[in-house]
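User: Predict structure, ligand PBG.
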Amino acid sequence: MLIRPRRLRENPAIRKMTRETRVSKESLILPLFLEEGLHIKNPISSLDGHFRYSPDRVGEAIENALQHGVDKVLLFGIPAHKDEKGSSAYDNDGIVQQGIRKIKRDYPEVCVITDVCMCEYTSHGHCGILTGDKVDNDETLEYLAAIALSHVEAGADMVAPSDMMDGRVLAIRDTLDKKGYSHIPIMSYAVKYASYFYGPFRDAAGSAPGFGDRRGYQMDWHNAKEAIKEAMLDVTQGADILMVKPALCYLDIVKAVAEKSTLPLAAYSVSGEYAMIKAAAKMGLIDEYGVMCESAISIYRAGADILITYYANEIADAIEKGDIG
Ligand code: PBG
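Assistant: Predicted complex:
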């Protein structure tokens, strides 16, 4: 026998030397939830191990992430006030804007990325402005641009629109450029499916739609060619980083977008993916650490350059220990 694949599996040193997928802590982004108020660190029951922080305490989450070697966060806000037009989303003193200022003042080295959407801020829970019971795409664009601008004015390093309106990357790019922020990158949730896997997030953020669902703007999970269409549209609108979301059920999509585009590609391993691993581990059915490592690597192997995950700190530890990477 000339060819024996097992030779390269003989010992850990050889196995690690010949690994095909390399990962680093620099590619990890940790989602963080901010809640209006003081002295708050509320456990999120649907996301075991995660908390909603008021801005005065968010430093605790940042310190912790930095200790693990994670220096990038994706911010979500839970406002005290919701209305039809989501006005707290673009309020200069809104919850995310307060959080950005606090983090950038105390930890200027941390890369602060913000989720740009309306669903946490609207009384109806949809990702845009309604006309009747439909989200009005073109009217929503102005609001998204205003949200992105207010985040950047507060000090955000990058904005990440997640609403899935047509044309939003260009609208945000135009506004940022006109206001002197042409250097701020946009990470577009280019390929975002109307997924059941967002359930725990919607509990955490209180952002479930009050009526109907998001299928009029988020993508139908039967579609793969449409993912390329969405990704390429965002490239032409000036996106700097593309994202596919969710990750684990969509590895074919991650691979397809990675092959078609020259932009860095992020994958968002969403709340339901995290919650499923946690729940199965709690029931004694799987080894949490092992499944976390294996699923994270599968996302990189499919072609992701960047991973947004609720396990960012723990994955960084696994990289440090040499179990992955
Ligand atoms: C806001 C947004 C959502 C998520 C990220 N940004 C919720 C949604 O679209 O309903 C989901 C993230 C997760 O499940 O971890 N539109």
